[in-house]
Amino acid sequence: MNDTMAWAPLMAELDRWQAAGRIADLWLRDDDAVEPTPALDRLLALTGEHDVPLTLAVIPEHTGAALAARLDRAPWAEVAVHGWSHHNHAPATEKKQELGAHRPVDIVLGELGAGFDKLAALHKPRFVPMLVPPWNRIGAAVVSGLPDLGFKALSVFGAEKSGPLHLLNTHVDLMDWHGTRGGRDHGVLATELAARLKLVFEQGGATGLLTHHLVHDEQAWLFLETLLALTKNHAGCRWRTAAALIL
């Protein structure tokens, strides 16, 4: 499949939005940021070039002033809370979880409160009171305690469900975690984005793209670069900050 054919479903759907006089809201979440790296510089350069807001899910325990100083030069980036340490507490028989029911809920909430406070202090102008659970998994009892910590939103992967917090999910994952562990096929990704936009056209909501800059291969980088270039000036869509979508 050539590049034009690969992107055709997405571009056709965006053209439909434009023809209807509507604008699709897109947002970009990138997970596991901790410190300045060449990969982070590449992501910031790419999003900055195309005027695309970027939501970085930052791991509180392992980050510090160096990342804050780097992001001072990237005003289009905002920061959300990515758990506490990104440590798996589930047994080998279960899927990985940091925020599940494997520890007392008060301990989990204590860590999340510490993470909230640390990132809010480090990233005052760009901090978003949104939790991004590591591995996109979180226990119901933990979710119930988030509002008391100051969280206004929760972001996982997949369709949104009702709960005590605003949900701003991601819906298309750039990475092939169960195969090559690199970037997925561009045509498949474009088709998935088009399918999400068709759903949103009828039901409302935003469309979230999930990336992981630290493990991108050239396939992943090329998809992201092409997507941002194609959507930059398209009248049928706009890239939004998480803050604008939840607050």
Explain what you see.
The chain has a single domain (22-184, 208-246), classed as TIM Barrel (Alpha-Beta Barrel), CATH 3.20.20. 41% of the residues lie in helices and 16% in strands. It has helices spanning 3-19, 38-49, 65-71, 105-122, 140-149, 186-203, 218-231, 242-246; strands at residues 24-33, 54-58, 77-81, 127-131, 153-154, 166-167, 172-173, 207-211, 237-239. Strands 1, 2, 3, 4, 5, 6, 7, 8 and 9 form a nine-stranded parallel beta sheet that branches. It is globular and about 50 Å long.
Distinct helical segment count: 8
Give the overall form. Answer: globular
Q: Give the topology string: H per helix, E per strand.
A: HEHEHEHEHEEEHEHEH
| CATH class designation | Alpha Beta
> What is the count of distinct domains?
1
Report the average pLDDT across residues: 96
CATH topology: TIM Barrel
The CATH homologous superfamily is named: Glycoside hydrolase/deacetylase
Distance between the termini: 41 Å
Structural class: alpha/beta
Strand proportion, as a percent range, falls in 15-25%
Low-confidence stretches: none
Which descriptors apply to this entry?
247 residues, alpha/beta, 8 helices, 9 strands, 41% helix, Glyco_hydro/deAcase_b/a-brl, CE4_u4-like
